[in-house]
Amino acid sequence: MLEDVDPFVGTAATDLPPPTGLAATWWSPKPLVGNTHPGATYPLGMVSACAYSGAYPTGYGRYDLSTEGVPSTLFDNPVASGFTHFQQSGTGAIRKYYNYVRVTPMLEPLDALGARWDLLDEEASPGRYAATLGNGVRCEITVGPKSAVHRYTFPAHADARLVVDLSLGGLAIAHGATVPLRAHLATLGPGTAAGEVVVEGAPLAVHVECDAHRWRQMLWYDRRLMPGSTRLDLGGIRPTTLRPFGLLWAGPTTAGQVVEVRLGFSLRGPGQARTNLAADCGPGPASFDARHAATTRAWDEHLGRIEVECPDPARRSVFATALYHALLKPCLAPGESPFWPGDTPFAFDLSTMWDVYRTQLPLLTTFWPDRAVELATALLHVCEEEGNFPIGYRMARGADRFSRQASALAQTFLADLCALDAPGVDWDWALVHMHNDLRRTYGEDYLLHGVAHPVSHTLDLAFGYWCTGRVARRVGDHALADELARYARGWTAAFDPATGLLRDSTFYEGGRWNYSFRLVHDMAGRIALAGGDEAFVALLDRFFGFGAAPVVQPGERPDAAEMAAGYALDRFEGLNNEPDMDAPWAYHYAGRPDRTAEVVHGVVHQRFGTGPGGLPGNDDSGALSSWYVWASLGLFPVAGQSLFLVNAPSFAESRLHVPGGVLTVETTGFAEPGPGTSPRYVRAAWLDGQPLDRTWLPAARVRRGGRLLLELGPEPAGWGTAPEHRPPSYPDGTAAPHPTDPTSETP
Q1: What is the pLDDT of residue 737?
Q2: Of 187, 305, 449, 613, which is least packed with CB atoms within 10 Å of its CB?
Q3: 394 and 200 in contact (C-beta within 8 Å)?
């Protein structure tokens, strides 16, 4: 799988073949660009490193800020002023753009720092990025969990230099820069230096080692050298007083001379940064090859958790890259909390729960439960120290609330972990914070009035109560669970029985149609509220564009009228945005898994592709890519409910290396799919040789491994249509446990 990954996917504006059929009726309001970067990364690691142009939103690439339609360009071709660390992945306007500690190999005087050179001969693979700058220096970067190693091959020159800029941060767009508040920098000896900058309230420390010991080593300030100085201290920096500062090494080079620079990072001071560098890269001085090999092994192990049989190299690449993108965030940095003591788990770049809770977090829970527990414990510490579970959390002081996005999403994640009996979480401690958090922000409106606006928060909070009730029963507090069940039933207040849709309200990045088909914990009640199976399916068909005419997508800088006309379609967004990610699977609950197959087929084979333009929208920290992984495998997680919905996979066979062994998903009647093919339907299923009439599997059963055999065909055959074969619902708000045997009669 490793060799199939293309980190350049999603780095440019969407460039997919014109959609056909059902997919041509979907409308995409959000930016038509993946917003990813091809930099060097480590699975769920703290550090990334990439060429820096200052473009939005990762610092890599050519684009200006965009929130709708096709992005505008800042640069005509790929350029870079150096190589920075800490990048977002696939996000939009999140206001914290990192790109700290720029390293620039130069043949020019220091006054030229900040100039952009052409990026030539770019290469990228998991754990490595390489390019040649227009000044002739070949540049390679790899990273470890808390470190980066750069290798530069210089041409012959009388006075080359390697410049480290600690003052840079953010992007070269309006209001995109990050200004450090305080900084200090010191040389420790030949080839060694350390510093710390306080950015966005977080103290970021770096320990730097360079193997060019015969070169001159100097500090610099305001692009002027400071010969003889060994320390630089700055305080009270403001945008009006900021002057660039850093250190450099300079000296003559022969053609092909190689210089390595190693950087260890920490949020707990230069001493720990030095320790982190030694742990990641050894004693040095040279460490690029060893660090790259170790990072490659880590990526190979992570990507090897899922194997697929596919003769098409393009589809293999799309899948492998999606799994790769799903494992970039959040950044897990154990023992690195700068805000509270103790060697506890710490995490940042949760960007945001609203994006990742449906797809990416279930991926961690299923395949890497130990990392999921690490993240959960970090979130519990955030809640304990800062008073709320975050919706978004950055390498910055205080949680980003993003309060309008959603409520109670950490409860969903924790409920899944609890139901799987994942070790390592103190569930009594977790329950206290889960319960208290439900009463904060929009939760107060929900308690007082039975509804919260945006009305999607009413669904969030009702489900949060349901999820918290699962944990209450797990720890034996049945009285609390019964109390929570009453509030879990409040989801009905969000809907208008006259339309079968959500009530009129404000909505975050969508409308009531986008939010009306999320998978609540009582889908049977939801369908009844809409008027029954036929009425509910008719609403879904209308939403997904069955029988509708093709639509025109927004162009560059669309005006208000163009966007208003598109929103008025009330149409599925084709995975361009998050609110309706789980809507295709709502058909399962009405006995129409065939419709799910048709919609998912259109998304998987027409909304994802190879190359820089291969994503239909912002990848949002792997949320979009995780959706593709699940949909391609024919298993979709219902977040918080610990079950998977079964659909026709897009591979003849796949092997999922889960905690209990290997789950093999095999097919008969498989036909190689593509954009112009018709969908295949599940006609019958068997689990470990026993007939599986239900369209779902408990998550605990998936984690045990086994053999799932799916008979596929060009026409549906009634599989999963009977009411008793549909996924479970919980009308009384009680969070009953799921059975481990999906063929049992007890839901």
Answers
A1: 55
A2: 449
A3: yes
Angle in degrees, CA 150, 151, 152, rounded to 5:
120
Name the residue with tokens 């494992």: 327
* Cα–Cα distance measured from residue 47 to residue 316, given in angstroms and rounded to the nearest whole number: 27
The CA distance from 57 to 96, in Å, is: 9
Q: What's the pLDDT tens digit per position in 73-90? A: 999 999 999 999 999 999
Burial status of residue 305 (CB atoms within 10 A of its CB: 0-12, 13-18, 19 or more): middle
Residue 480: other Cβ atoms inside 10 A: 17
Residue with tokens 């055999």: 709
| Cross-strand bridge partners of residue 253 | 157
Task: Please give the pLDDT value at position 401.
Answer: 63
Of 68-72, 111-115, 156-160, 682-686, the range with the lowest mean pLDDT is 68-72
**Judging by DSSP bridges, how do beta strands 661-668 and 706-713 pair with one another?**
parallel
Other Cβ atoms closer than 10 A to 297 = 12
Cβ–Cβ < 8 Å for 141, 149: yes
Q: What is the spatial distance between Cα 29 and Cα 407, in angstroms, rounded to a whole number?
A: 23
- How open is the CA angle 593-309-18, to the nearest 5 degrees? 60
Of 188, 198, 277, the C-alpha closest to 237 is 198
- Kindly state the helix (H) or strand (E) to which residue 274 belongs, with its residue range: helix 270-281
| Percent of the chain topping pLDDT 90 | 89
**What pLDDT, in 10s, does the model give residues 351-375?**
889 999 999 999 999 999 999 999 9
Burial of 636 (0-12, 13-18, 19+ CB in 10 A): buried
Distance, in Å, from the CA atom of 312 to the CA atom of 711, rounded to the nearest integer, reads: 22
Dump pLDDT digits (tens) for 235-280. Answer: 999 999 999 999 999 999 999 999 999 999 999 999 999 999 999 9
pTM of the entire structure? 0.96
Number of other residues whose CB lies within 10 A of the CB of residue 340: 12
Q: What is the pLDDT of residue 250?
A: 96
Spell out the SS3 assignment of 149-208: EEEEEECCEEEEEEEEECCCCECCCCCCECCCCEEEEEEEECCEEEEEEEECCEEEEEEE
For residue 229, the Cα-to-chain-centroid distance in whole angstroms is 43
Q: 């030539």: which residue's tokens?
A: 120
* CB-count exposure of residue 18 (10 Å: 0-12, 13-18, 19+): exposed
HSE on the CB side for 634, CA within 13 Å? 31
pLDDT at residue 747 in the model: 30
Gyration radius of the chain's alpha carbons: 26
CA distance linking residue 404 with residue 402, whole number of Å? 6
Q: Report how far apart, in Å, the C-alpha atoms of 527 and of each of 466, 517, 524, 539 are.
A: 19, 10, 5, 10
pLDDT tens column, 283-293: 988 899 999 99
Residue 736 pLDDT exceeds 70: no
